[in-house]
Amino acid sequence: MTRLGIGIAVAALVAVPLALAQPAGVPPTISDYWSWTRLNIDRSTDNPTGAHPQSKDIYINLDPAEIVAAGGQPIVPFPEGTIVVKERNDAGRLLVDRLYMMEKTGGAWVYRVFDRQADGSFRGQDYGTANFCRDCHAAAPTDFVFVQFERR
Q1: How far apart, in whole angstroms, are the C-alpha atoms of residue 60 and residue 83?
Q2: DSSP the chain
Q3: Model-level pTM?
Q4: From the centroid of its chain, how far is CA 145?
Q5: In sequence order, what are the residues at sequence separation of 6 or more whose Cβ sits closer than 8 angstroms to the Cβ of residue 50?
Q6: How far apart are CA 132 and CA 55, in angstroms?
Q7: More confident residue, 124 or 19
Q8: What is the bridge-based pairing of β-strands 95-105 and 56-60?
Q9: Strongest mean pLDDT among 15-19, 45-49, 141-145
Q10: Which distant-in-sequence residues (6+ apart) come within 8 Å of 25 by Cβ?
């Protein structure tokens, strides 16, 4: 490989993570959500008739030690500033087509949804503490979050 070829390859390796780190249209608070703790081990598809039936992965901005006590019990309620991001996967197109976000602010969960646009960016919709989100999530076993951390 020539020096030019090596330079291009190195530039590509550097540019790809940088491009991934800033998905257009999502707030900076979640721009690197995929580097957070993933709650599920395998892609979740266990809710085929619920509000979010497609396959999904769920991430939280806390370390495992902040989520699960030494005895294995969930540590709840989650602290102020906790963010949970659920990415909905479009298996046919092999991409994330929607992001659901919950952020604990002022002791309450605030909900937002980001849909992928034709140009690849995301466009967000704020739902605040919307009843239709909150009422469903109130049935969750751990502080309005359905998926618990799965030990590796």
Answers
A1: 6
A2: --HHHHHHHHHHHHHHHHHHHS-TTS-GGGTTGGGSEES-SSPB---TTSSS-S-EEEEESS-HHHHB-TTS-B--SPPTT-EEEEEEEETTTTEEEEEEEEEEETTEEEEEEEEEPTTS-EEEEEEET-HHHHHHHTTSSBTTB-PPPPP-
A3: 0.81
A4: 12
A5: none
A6: 21
A7: 124
A8: unpaired
A9: 141-145
A10: 114, 117, 121, 122, 123, 124
Burial class (CB in 10 A: 0-12, 13-18, 19+), 85: buried
- Domain segments of the chain as ranges: 3-137
Q: Which residues pair with 57 in a beta bridge?
A: 87
Calculate mean pLDDT across residues 64-80. 93
Q: How far is CA 62 from the centre of its chain?
A: 12
Q: How far apart are CA 103 and CA 106, in angstroms?
A: 10
Cα 11 from chain centre: 28
> Can you read off the two tokens belonging to residue 53?
């039936």
